[in-house]
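Comment thread on ticket #2218

A.B. wrote:
> Attaching the input chain for the structure job we discussed in standup.
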Amino acid sequence: MTDQNTQTTETTQTGTTIETGPFRKAVEAAQADLARVEALETATAEELTTAEAALEAAMAALLKSDEPKTYEVHLNDGGGDDSITAASLREAMDQWETWAQGGDYGDPSSTIWVHGAVEDEAGEFHPASVEIDPEEPSCEDDLEHDWRAEVGVVGGLAENTGVFGHGGGVVITAHCAHCGLYRETDTWAQDPETGEQGLRAIRYREADDASIDYTWAWLMEAIDEIPLPEGWSAARCGESFLLELTRDGAEDDDPETVLANPEELREVLRLKSWRSLIDE
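C.D. wrote:
> Ran it. Output below, let me know if you need it in another format.
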């Protein structure tokens, strides 16, 4: 016989071993008593009601305690199910959020909202939801995005560039000075599943002529701060995003010219030197 003060353990569906403390023991005892009463042919309705109430009270005490408990986690529409162990419903909800964020939702172009529930040992479902933002595309040449809001690129008012009203909120647009990528933040987004409005959503858009032109202008401005070696000059090659470097005084029949693309120019900027392209 096991002493009442001795801690025993049980294994959940996921193989996690949890302690069986006094509150769980009380639930198990109430379950056994209810099963005994239900098995009696002479059991009265009052006896059944009393046993059921005792089990309900024991389960409520267990759920309020900090003893480890098994929770079932679910995603809506058959998205997935699993079992977890947690000391409280709050902890179980946090675990559900982490679990839900690890799901495979493809490659969403903007923020999505995932819904599901946490089921406690009493069989009660507690709704849960989490927002999942799209993965931020990488910048050029392993650089960090430099988010800006130049009025000539994103529009808007000079004192509030890139900001436009949307419902009860705004859409804020920024562009990366390095690669031209756009990032839109909507403060009045709507969850298509629940209809809830006033949520925050992020979306990324590919660079266009306006943001690329700004990127080139910004790059040229930064490059201008790095002096060219003596005898060299630089000019944009037509309308392309290439810089033509020419050595002054080179023979007409043997001109020395170097064409540099934005990636190569960013390397010049990183080194603060032209040595990666021409001899200094």
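A.B. wrote:
> Thanks. Noting for the ticket: The radius of gyration is 33 Å.
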